[in-house]
Design a protein that fits this description.
heterodimer; A: 335 residues; alpha/beta; Rossmann fold; 2 domains; eight-stranded mixed sheet; six-stranded parallel sheet; 14 strands; elongated; B: 301 residues; mainly alpha; two-stranded antiparallel ribbon; 12 helices
């Protein structure tokens, strides 16, 4: 009898402690559209940023990770599953995931933090890029790259550049928007843009080859389809003997002459910092959308040598990273 | 759990309409039609862009989405029956054409419906007393209506001729029916339904994406085959019902994989594996039970 009562008391106490332990941490649902080096880096950045800010995983925060595995039809079920698990916040990496999360949580005050979304205003995620008070429970970080700056950089690299070839997938929201920006910016710089379309990774080689002889430089934005088959574009640029600029610094070693942009791990860290501000009590409608700045220039001198191109000192002087003699160098580190 | 099953049921119904479309071509016409991967998006594109850009009302955009899908089906029909292109290739060609056409309709790869009155949102607002179940009840009414209309259609002269076309083409020629016309009708109705499903999915999800059609044929076939293995009947009413049940099972599997997969140690990257395994379980369990029952019967007799 006594031991049975003890057991019951013990179970109750244990249950209370358990309940307290379960109730304490805030659950954060992190979802992405597909497994992809850049998006995986954002995810890691978010988690690392929270750890660095003192949020211990499984004690203060619990991360629920999900991937739509490339199918936009999984976006809504993932958001609904987060909702039924009672998450305190959703971090949505990429445009479709953010739209689905905003739809599923639209009748709530739950903070939605998007990341790796190129144009959140055009995508309809937020009303205003500068005034957060009208954006409800949605805020986040945009990965809009400086397209006009990239085009100007190609012109600076080789003043002979007049026609710029862009290989892109018009089915990717981010890439479509960036190509539009390039088409808008080109006339002002005295350039023309020639586009070649690749709707799948398999069609990238053909699209890139179609530009050979028709362009003075190749340019690829943050297009997931094209970046996945980047070797084909590099081969086409080498075959035409023209420079190639890629808006993804992590791909420098694969052979573009220039690589600009920021790395996505840092993008994740910035997203994480935004999340920390929300966790410390700020509402999303007080936090404007962040546009990541500080694009870096990386130069691959091996690739420039292959097409007999001398990189001007004005560009080398600003380079944050060099690739020469088969290895990467960072001028900032002084080696 | 209740909320998860509610959402799974909503999705099973809304994607069930596309499965009914796949059922018409695959089961009735014996025509492997890959147009659906494109026409699903066409429906979503029409139902979204007309709502956002042209300010149409949410009901008529669904009717236009159906018509646009039917038109896509007719293109495949013309390629196949008039130009003599093989069925599989005709569907693939239309599907590829539709990718560009869908981008033209949408004007961009992704349209947000967060700031407009979608059909599902309008429903939720008009019957507030149903609460969270309003969308489910609405979709159930729509899907059952579509199913009953389809059953009625298959009992009409054209519908019966359509069924006969898939079973025995020579026989219906002998009866003076042109099988080419029947294929056109079947492809039009099928892709119309798939596009209607795409339009409803866009409104339900709050966005249309040019990539959302990928795999419509696969999930549609999954629903048709799961349903067909659970309910073996040659009666058209049971066959269409089995497709919807198959769709409900498939979407429940996706939902359960997402919601509870982590308990058994699955990671985010295992989603498609878990979904497929759950479908395998759904297919195998009734078969095993049937075999056990038979063995029990054999022992007792």
């Amino acid at each position: 009898m006594n031991s049975k009562r003890l057991l019951i008391v013990g179970l109750v106490v244990f249950g209370l402690i358990g309940a307290a332990a379960i109730a304490a941490p805030i659950q954060i649902g992190i979802c992405k559209i597909v497994e992809h080096p850049a998006l995986d880096a954002v995810e890691r950045g978010v988690i690392d940023a929270l750890a660095a800010a003192g949020f211990v995983s499984d004690r203060d925060v619990v991360f629920l990770l999900a991937s739509a595995q490339g199918d936009p039809n999984n976006a809504v079920p993932i958001a609904q599953s987060f909702r039924s698990q009672g998450v305190g916040m959703v971090v949505a990496i990429s445009t479709p995931m953010a739209l689905a999360a905003a739809e599923v949580f639209r009748d709530t005050q739950l903070p939605i933090v998007f990341s790796a979304v190129t144009d959140p205003v055009a995508a309809g995620l937020v009303e205003s890029a500068v005034d957060p008070s009208r954006n409800g429970n949605v805020t986040g970080v945009s990965d809009l790259i400086d397209v006009a700056g990239d085009l100007a950089l190609l012109k600076e690299l080789s003043p002979a550049v007049r026609r710029i070839g862009i290989v892109y997938n018009p089915g990717e929201a981010n890439s479509d928007q960036l190509t539009r920006l390039a088409l808008e910016a080109a006339p002002g710089l005295g350039l023309t843009v020639v586009t070649a379309i690749a709707d799948t990774t398999a069609n990238v080689p053909m699209a890139a080859q179609s530009l050979i002889g028709r362009v003075d430089a190749f340019y690829v934005t943050t297009d997931n389809t094209v970046v996945s088959a980047i070797d084909a574009v590099i081969a086409a640029a080498e075959a035409s003997g023209v420079p190639f600029l890629m808006a993804d610094p992590t791909s420098l070693e694969f052979g573009p002459v220039l690589a600009t942009g920021f790395d996505y791990y840092r993008h994740g860290l910035i997203t994480g910092a935004l999340i920390v501000e929300i966790l410390s009590g700020l509402r999303p409608d007080a936090l404007p959308v962040i546009y990541q700045s500080g694009a870096e220039i990386h130069v691959n001198l091996d690739a420039a040598g292959k097409i007999g191109l001398t990189v001007p000192s004005s560009i080398l002087g600003r380079a944050a990273g060099l690739f020469v003699g088969g290895r990467a160098w960072s001028p900032a580190e002084g080696n | 759990m209740a909320a998860i099953l509610l959402h799974a049921a909503e999705q099973g119904l809304v994607y069930g309409i596309a499965a009914l479309g796949v059922f018409i071509t695959y089961r009735i016409l014996a025509f492997p039609d890959l147009t659906v991967d494109g026409s699903f998006v066409t429906g979503a594109a029409v139902a979204s862009s007309l709502l956002v850009y042209s300010r149409f009302d949410p009901v008529s955009v669904m009717a236009i989405a159906f018509a646009a899908g039917a038109l896509a089906g007719l293109i495949t029909g013309v390629l196949n029956t008039r130009l003599g292109i093989k069925d599989l290739l005709a569907g693939v060609l239309t599907m590829i054409m539709l990718y560009s056409i869908n981008l033209r309709i949408m004007g961009r790869p992704n349209i947000s419906l967060l700031r407009v009155e979608t059909l599902t949102r309008a429903v939720g607002r008009s019957v507030p007393w149903l609460g969270d179940a309003s969308v489910l009840v609405f979709l159930a009414i729509v899907v059952i209506a579509v199913k009953l209309l389809l059953d009625l259609f298959f009992r009409t002269e054209i519908g019966l001729a359509l069924r006969a076309t898939g079973d025995n083409e020579a026989m219906i020629v002998a009866h003076g029916v042109n099988p080419k016309t029947m294929k056109m009708v079947g492809l039009a109705v099928s892709n119309g339904l798939v596009a209607l499903s795409g339009g409803l999915v866009a409104h339900y999800s709050g966005f249309a994406d040019v990539g959302m059609g990928l795999g419509t044929i696969v999930t549609g076939l999954a629903a048709v085959i799961i349903g067909g293995s659970l309910i073996r009947s040659r009666r058209i009413g049971w066959m269409t019902a089995s497709v919807l049940i198959g769709s409900l099972i498939y979407r429940t599997a996706v939902m359960l994989a997402l919601r509870y997969g982590y308990i058994v140690g699955f990671q985010a990257s295992d989603l498609k594996l878990v979904t497929s395994l759950l479908v395998v379980v759904a297919l195998v369990v009734p078969a095993i039970r049937g075999r056990l029952m038979r063995r029990v019967d054999a022992c007792s007799s």
